[in-house]
């Protein structure tokens, strides 16, 4: 094999492996997150519905708003709505753990977006 095609094939293979590994670790993190929250079956169903509604709202804001300020305000409004619904759904201990995890995820997202 020639050096250039071999190099390209190696880079593609490593990229696929990295993507696969990142996807696996995020799934593990979510499973760990749910087990830490100790959600009941009903809570998990409602949790998933609230989360899906939240991400749908974020997607809508992202596609409809052109101003960064309006986009930020839209994100904050959806976050506030989601958190109030979660507070009603979860026990106080579960909500404290949820809030702590959300802050950590937000910090991680900010670090990744720098």
Automatic annotation (TrEMBL):
Domain of life: Bacteria
Alphabetic keyword roster: Signal
Signal peptide start-end: 1-22
Protein name as catalogued: Uncharacterized protein
Lineage of the species this protein comes from: Bacteria, Pseudomonadati, Bacteroidota, Cytophagia, Cytophagales
